[in-house]
Each structure stands twice: as structure tokens, then as C-alpha cells.
Amino acid sequence: MEDYSGYFRQGDLIAKHLKGELTSQEKAELDDWVAQSDHNRALFEKLTEKGNLNNEFDQFATSGKEEAWERVANETGFTKSRRITYIGSRFARLVVAALVIIISGVFVYQLTFRSKPARQVAQQTDILPGGSKAILTLDDASQIVLDDATNGEIARQDDMVITKTADGQIMYDGSKSAETPPDGKSDLSYNTITTPRGGKFRVILPDGSKVWLNAASSLKYPTTFRGRERTVALNGEAYFEITHVTSGSSEAIPFRVRSAGQVVEVIGTHFNINSYSDESSIKTTLLEGKVKVIKTQPSVSKTVSEGSASAIILKPGEQSQLASGNRPRLNRIDHADLEEAVAWKNGQFQFKDTDLPTIMRQIARWYDVEVAFQGKLPDKKFRGKISRDVPLSQIFQILQLSGVNFKLDGRKITVKS
């Protein structure tokens, strides 16, 4: 996937140039970019001429969305017959690259020459994106902060050696573990890996299965898989690549993921589960293989919806959605957006007709911020991709173009129409 942070970087450098805040190193970087092509030089001259900036801002402020896209397409040399409708195609990415640079300059011009209190976010202390952070809780309740732990062996559980690797994940070495429990121990030992808001982490389970954990998530699993099943418990979101394992009789040992209201049963496959408690449904998206999604029995106080399936078998490209509430329903989506489902794992925010509250929930988890809403918000749907590696202010710059303003106070964001 394409990373737009480089385009934002040029916008930031042009912004600092306009405000006279470039360091000598940044000035050299900007000069080098300008010298790379006649197009870069022309764009730089256009963005740094006050009259042009004033005209750019007025046109973007008064144009409709389609008109704005048309104008940028024309300015970048693309014909009307190749109009874009979303940010997914290669042509769209090229136009967005130009638009981001233009908008960066226009936005900074607005801050510099037309400053308004509601648009001061980028001038405040910025909030950096999340990173590789997690806590490993061992069976005896002791905890290891994984982002602080040194590489190499970090613990042992039931003769399992737990190692933190140089590429930022933990793995379990079972070569020294016994098939029978040590010292007559019959109960399984469990570990839990927990990511905070603003964190993510990868773990290789004792059976070799790989799990990517998104922010504000946890996974509980035994330190050794024994018997005829492998079961883990998930809160939040995770992407799984399950290793096919057979018993002594060559019978496949199933792998089960328990989350709120459902169990996902697999043999060997790739899938994503989004089970955040503040979302309207639990989404299980299958990329490879085959899974069975089973709706667990609700509590006595709840009634199962009539006509709602109790189990669904998914094929690649399909998604199940288990709606929350007192009458949960398990439904199948035949043609799921796989890229959107796993965008977080690939370092992207990706939106497809996504409303603002849903976007802000994702932002809150990844940037570890509190979000509040003020006033009537625009009833708009958003499409596009944004790198998860950019500072929060750059997310704001894009969303503000749709008539949404943000006030940042410490780690609290107030969203205003």
C-alpha cells in the first residue's frame, strides 16, 4: 500500500517556509525537493505566492466536492474522462498526492494569514501515532512490559521459553516442553497479551499460529496446547494466521477464538475479528481457508432473534456480522471489503462510506485520545486511505476539508461542525 507521509512532509516544509520557521536542514530538504523537477518548482512557486494561495483557498472553500476533484485533475494533467470517484485506484492516488500538497499549503496559509480559533490544532503540540506496545501477563499474574523488554528470552512457562524477537514480536519455543504436564500439574497455564490504546503487537502462539493485535485489545491463550482443541479468547481486534495441526491419528485439531457473543472455529486459515465493545457489531472477515462462526447462547435475560442464524460457514471474501444488543443477529456479507478489514494491520486507516463517529473511534484507539462531540455533525460518509504513521494534526487537516473542526486540549479532542 502507498504511504502518503512523504506528501504531507512536503506540505509541512512549505508551511514552515511560509511562516519563516525552516531550520537549515529543512531548508536544504525543501530546496532538494524543488530542484528535483520543473513540476515541483512550479507547484512550490504557486503555493508560496500570496495571491495564488488566496485564490486556492477561496476555490476550495466554495467548490463542491466533484468540482474540486475536477479542478485538481485538470491541474495535474488528467482528462475529464478519467475522473476519480474514490481514493482506491492508482489514478486516484496520483491526484490525491497533488491534492494533499496543495491542500497542505492552503491549510497553512489559512493558519498563517486567516487564523481562526477553531483551526489552531496544527499549531499546538502534536500527538504522535501509536506504536509497538503491549503487556504480557504470565500465569502467576506477574507482568512484563514488552516495549521495554530487551530482545531474547524474557520468561519461561511450563518449560516454554518466551522470547522477544528483534522484529518486535514474542514467540514460544516448545522444543523443551513435555507432552505430559510437569510435576504432575494437570491445569493449563495461561498468558495474556494486552495492547493499550495507542499500541499494537504481534505474537507467535505455542502452536506456531501468528496473531496481530490492534490497539486496545487483549488475547488470552494457554502456554501449551494440549488435547483435541486449541482455544483462545479475544477482546478487541486481531488478525490471525492459523497453523494447521493434526493429532497422532492425523485428525486435524481445530482452533477456536472466543469473543463476546461468538466462537470462531477454524482448522488453518487467515481471518480478522473486530470485536470492540463500542462498535455496533462483531465482524469476522475471512481472507483464506474456511471458518465457522457460531453465535453463543445469550444470557437468560436476552431473547434470540427469530430467523437469526446460530452458525455461519464463511468462504474467502465473506464476512459475518453479529449485531450487539438484546436481540443479536448473525448475518453474512457475501462480498466483504478485505482491504478495509485488514487496513489497520497494514499500517493504514481505510474508510469506505464511513461515518465520522466510526472514524473518531478508530482515531481515539490509535492515538490514545478522548473524543467528545459538540453541536450537530455533518451527515457525511468518508472514503479514502490515510497512513497510521502520521501525526494527528495531519488527520485533522484532511477531515477539516469536509467541514469538520477540531479543538485539541491535551489529549482531549472536541469535534465541531
TrEMBL record:
Residues 349-415 form the Protein FecR C-terminal domain. Keywords: Membrane, Transmembrane, Transmembrane helix. The keyword Transmembrane helix applies. The chain crosses the membrane at residues 91-111. Residues 172-191 are annotated as: Disordered. Residues 192-292 form the FecR protein domain. Coiled coil: none annotated. GO terms for molecular function: sigma factor antagonist activity. This is DUF4974 domain-containing protein. It comes from Spirosoma endbachense.
